[in-house]
Design goal:
Layout (H helix, E strand, L loop, with lengths): L4 H8 L7 H11 L4 E8 L4 E8 L6 H4 L1 E3 L3 H9 L3 E3 L22 E8 L2 E9 L8 H22 L1
Antiparallel strand pairs: 1-2, 1-6, 2-3, 4-5, 5-6
Helix pairs in contact: 1-2
Protein name: GAF domain-containing protein
Organism: Rhodonellum psychrophilum GCM71 = DSM 17998
InterPro entries: GAF, GAF-like_dom_sf
């Protein structure tokens, strides 16, 4: 599964700083999702820091603005450096999803680390309002998008 032209076009834009909300909104739309987050990795604090979001209830934003590595889906994806997926976040009882995450009212969700040459640059997460298992192709595409975002984040910090 190849990256869509709309995502590639946005990621190739030479705007600095990048318009991360536009990136996330396009990504959510391309995958038929309703909700999403884009977090960068702050090496100093060892936390994921919210860069953009869509569909997250206002009262949850304080809990999602800074996420420790290893906590919740995004934190675990960052820690494992692998995608973390749930077919239905609402019925999850593994403890991977934080209790407040259920307040998003989403079901099928995936958090993917943004890695470039094995280095963590953040995590992107998207979710659907229905139960859904993301395919391997979709997961691979999200990893590829994450790598492209990592490349941009690296260039913005140089």
């Amino acid at each position: 599964m190849a990256l869509s032209a709309s995502i590639l076009d946005i990621l190739k834009e030479s705007t600095s700083p990048m318009h991360w909300q536009k990136v996330l909104t396009t990504l959510i739309s391309e995958f038929g999702c309703s909700t999403g987050t884009l977090h960068s990795f702050d090496k100093e604090s060892q936390h994921l820091v919210l860069m953009a979001q869509q569909g997250i209830p206002e009262f949850l934003l304080p809990k999602m603005s800074k996420i420790p590595i290893g906590k919740g889906m995004a934190g675990i994806a960052a820690e494992r450096r692998k995608p973390v997926e749930m077919c239905n976040l609402q019925t999850d009882d593994t403890g991977v999803a934080r209790p407040a995450a259920k307040e998003t009212k989403v079901e099928g969700s995936i958090a993917v680390p943004m890695l470039l040459n094995g280095e963590l640059y953040g995590v992107l997460g998207i979710a659907k309002p229905v139960s859904y298992d993301f395919t391997k192709d979709e997961s691979d595409m999200l990893l590829e998008i994450g790598e492209s975002i990592g490349r941009i984040l690296k260039s913005e910090t140089v």
